[in-house]
Amino acid sequence: MAYHKGNLSFEKMLLKFIGEPDPLLSMLEWLCHKMMEVEVTSKLGASKNEHSDDRKGYLSGTRVRRFDTRMGTMYLLVPKVRKGGYVPFFVTEKKRSEHALLQVVQEAFVNGISTRKIERLAHSLGIESISASQVSVINKELNEQIKEFRERRLDDTYPVIWVDALYEKIRVDHRICNMAVLVVCGVNLDGKREILAVEPMFEESEASYTTLFDSLKARGLQNVWLAVSDAHQGLVNAVRKSFIGCSWQRCKVHFMRNILAHVPGKEKEFFAAKLKQIWQQPDDKSARRYAKILIDEYEKRFPKAIETLEDGLDESLQYYQFPEIDFRKISSTNVLERLNKEIRRRSRVVGIFPSMDSYIRLVCCYLMEYAEDWETANCYIHKNILQVMLSKRKAA
Fold it and tell me: Do both 65 and 107 map to the same domain?
C-alpha cells in the first residue's frame, strides 16, 4: 500500500513538472532543493523546527543564488546557517566547470569576439545571460598574467630588433583618441623571436620612442646590433641615442613605397620591378652599382623619385653589413607587418576600445600566445650564426 501511495505521489510530481515551461529544468531545481535540505539537516544534526539534543546549529533564512547549468539558469533558495556558513556540495563541485566557462569566455574575448556576441553564445548554451560588465570583470583576471608578460626581465643582448607602430581608436577621458601603439620584436642570442613591448602612446615622436627604449633598458636590454624600422625621424633619432653602436636598417618595403609615391600610376609596376632589383643583389657593391645605373637612367624622367632613392639608399643597405644572416629576414619589417595584421584582425571586431587597459588586455593576450608559438618553433636565425657573430664583436 505504501509503495502504491509512493507511486501516486511521484506521478503527481511528474504531472506538475510536465506542466512547467521547461520540465527538465524544473525537475533539476526541485532535486537541488531536496539535496540542500538533506545536506543541511545532516550538517545541523536536526531538520527544520525539530527539537533534538544532537542539534549543532540553526538556520537563519535563505539567500538567492543564481546557478547556471547546461539545462539552463535557475535561482536557488540556499539555506543560511548562523555559524559556519553553508555552500551546497553540487555548487562547490561545479566551480571547476564554472572556471572552464570563464576560460572559454576569456579565450573568446582574446580571439576578438565582442562582449555582446559572448552573451548570445552563453544564451545558446543555456546560460541565461552574461552581461558586458560580467565579461569585463572576468577578463580583468588576465591582468596579472599580462603584467608579468609586459614587465618580464629581458636578455642583455638582442642582435636584431624590429620596431613599428599601428594606430587604434581608444577612448580616453570620454574622448576617442587615435593612439599610436608601438610594437617591438627582437631575436635573442638563441635565435628565437620575442615580443619585447606593446606600448600605446598619444603620439609617435622621438620622446615616445625614447621612453619606450628606456623601459626596455630598465628591464635588462643593453645591446642591439641592428634596428629595423621605417624612416620616422623620431624613431631613428631615438634608436641612435638609446643604443650606441647600433646600426639602423631602413625597411626596404617602406622605402620603396616612399619612392613609388613620386612615380605616375601607369609607370609604377614597371619601375617597381626594376627598383626591387637593388635589394636583391648578392652584395653591397653590386647593389650600389645597380642603383647608380637606375639613377642615371631615370633621374630626368622621375626626378623626385630618384632624389628620394639617393637620400635613403645608404640606410636601406645596412643589412649587407650582416652577411651571415639571411637578408630577407633583416631587410624589412615584414615580421612585424604580419604581427600587426593579426592584431588589427582582432581589434577590428571591437572597433573603438573603451579604455587603454582593455586594448592592452586583448592585444597582449593574443601576443602571449603568438610568443609561445615562436618559442616552440624553429630558430628564426640559427643560434650558431649568432654565436660566431658575437665572438667576432667581442674580439673587435
Answer: no
